[in-house]
Amino acid sequence: MIHHLRAAGVDFILDARGPAAPVVVHWGRALGDLDAAALTALADAAAPAVAPSSIDRPFRVGVVPLLTEGWTGRPPVEISPFSPVLRHLGTRRDGDAVVVTLALGDAGLELRYALTPQGVLLVDRRVRNDGAADLEVRALSALLPVPPRAREVLDFTGRWAGEREPQRSRPGHGVWARDTRHGRGGHDDPFLFAVGTPEFGFRHGEVWATHVAWSGDRSVWFERGDMGLSVIGAGERLDGHTLAAGDTYEAPTVVAVWSDVGLDGLSARLHPWVRSWATPRGPRPVTLNTWEAVYFDQSLERLTPLVDAAARVGAERLVLDDGWFHGRTDDRRALGDWTVDERVWPDGLGPLISRVNGDGLEFGLWVEPEMVSADSDLARAHPEWMLTPADAVSWRFQHVLDLTNLDAWQHIFDRLDALLTQYPIAALKWDHNRDLLVPRTGGQVRALYRLLDALRAAHPEVEIESCASGGARIDLGILRRVDRFWTSDTNDPLARQRIQRWTGILIPPEFLGSHVGDERAHTTGRTASAAFRMTTALFLHAGIESDISRLDDAQLEALAGWTALYRAHRALLHGGTTVRVDDSDPAVLQHGVVAPDLGEGLFAYVALDRFDAALPSPIVLPGLDPDRRYRVRVIEVGAPVRTIQDADPAWITAGGVVLPGSVLAEGVLPAPLLAPGEALLLHVTAE
Question: What's the pLDDT tens digit per position in 188-198?
Answer without folding.
Answer: 999 999 999 99
